């Protein structure tokens, strides 16, 4: 539990958030997630599919450029996935049933 002093400090912080950034305060209060995480899913799928296509096309035609472009697309997709997971893990608290503020 928080001491009375800590509770007052937390209430002051909550009021400050509500006054300076009402959207953030509402999102924290409601526990909703940022829409940016969901918007990357189609892009991630597209980059991964492009990587598969380019690697296969590069292997079939024995074209190093296509093969390397496919590997670059895979590297990009893996990076995007890692960033998504890292952001998702940071937002785990917003998935709980309890309001954050």
Descriptive tags:
single chain, 101 residues, 4 helices, transmembrane helix, transmembrane
Could you describe the 3D structure shown?
The model is unreliable at 89-101 (pLDDT under 50). This protein has helices spanning 4-20, 22-30, 36-61, 64-90. The protein has 101 residues and is an all-alpha fold. Helices cover 78% and strands 0% of the residues. The longest helix is centred in the C-terminal third of the chain and has 27 residues, at 64-90. It comes from Saccharothrix longispora. The chain crosses the membrane at residues 44-77. Keywords: Membrane, Transmembrane, Transmembrane helix. This is Flp pilus assembly protein TadB.
Mean pLDDT: 76
**Helicity range of the residues?**
over 70%
Count of discrete alpha- or pi-helical segments spanning 4 or more residues: 4
Largest sheet: none
User: Structural class of the helix and strand makeup?
Assistant: mainly alpha
Distance between the termini: 15 Å
Poorly predicted runs are 89-101
What is the gyration radius calculated from CA atoms? Answer: 22 Å
Instruction: Give the DSSP E fraction (strand runs of 2 or more residues).
Output: under 5%
Task: Compute the number of strand runs.
Answer: 0
């Amino acid at each position: 539990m928080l001491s009375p002093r800590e509770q007052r400090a937390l209430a002051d912080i909550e009021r400050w958030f509500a006054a300076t950034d009402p959207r953030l305060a509402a999102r924290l209060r409601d526990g909703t997630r940022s829409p940016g995480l969901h918007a990357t899913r189609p892009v991630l799928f597209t980059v991964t599919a492009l990587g598969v296509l380019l690697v296969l096309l590069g292997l079939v035609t024995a074209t190093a450029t296509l093969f390397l472009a496919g590997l670059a697309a895979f590297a990009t997709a893996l990076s995007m996935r890692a960033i998504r997971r890292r952001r998702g893990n940071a937002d785990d608290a917003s998935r709980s049933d309890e309001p954050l503020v």
